[in-house]
Amino acid sequence: MIGVAPSLLSADFGCLRSQALLLEPLVVSFHVDVMDGHFVPNLTMGPPVVNRFREGVSKPLDIHLMIDHPRVYGPQFRVQEGDSITFHVESADPIADTIDAVRQTGAKVGLSLRPGTQLGRIERWLDRIDLAVVMSVEPGFGGQAFLHESLERIRMLRRKAGERLEIHVDGGIQKGNIREVAEAGANVAVAGSAIYGSADPEAAVRALIARGSVEQAG
After folding, report:
1. Which residues make Cβ contacts (< 8 Å) with residue 214, sequence separation at least 6?
2. 99 sits in which H/E element
3. Which 3 state secondary structure label does DSSP give 96?
4. Which residues are part of the catalytic machinery?
5. How many Å apart are CA 184 and CA 130, to the nearest integer?
6. Number of domains in the chain
7. Average confidence (pLDDT) over 120-146
8. Which sign does the torsion angle of CA 110, 115, 117, 120 carry?
9. pTM score, two decimals?
């Protein structure tokens, strides 16, 4: 079974927590995209909004820092047990120092990479992180189409990392591809528009979970 993590980038920011709580019994975590307008051409939310949202939500958050300086801003997020802070191997800050800074917050440490970045950029850090986020679209905006070549990247990463590492896949997840993502070796599928773009987000999550069951494959 693959877990589903709703991407709050696609939710209604005017009622963010209520939209999360509606789905909380069904999902493994919530994916929170933090964008600075430099690393990616979009602005979303920062520590004050995320920290306030965190109150009253029990499922873990994966705070995905699509920013130039995660070492500076990562420690500004208030985390709870099970939360993770993920940053990009392409960011400006030294990776080793940023891993240490995130680890000191008590969060799990995640690394992410753009679709065009070679997997070799992340391999040397696999024994120092808890999860990897494979971007299956170009980061910055929701609603993009899944890049099919991401499946081979997931397979390769799983072979190199073994079973210890959590692999999340972020971008373009739909009912039509979630099973392939699960079979490639991902643990968590991050879905935004497929959930919050639906007239019935709860039904959309249930459908993704059902389709993502590798036990049903074939």
Report:
1. 1, 2, 179, 182, 183
2. helix 95-104
3. helix
4. 33, 170
5. 19
6. 1
7. 89
8. positive
9. 0.94
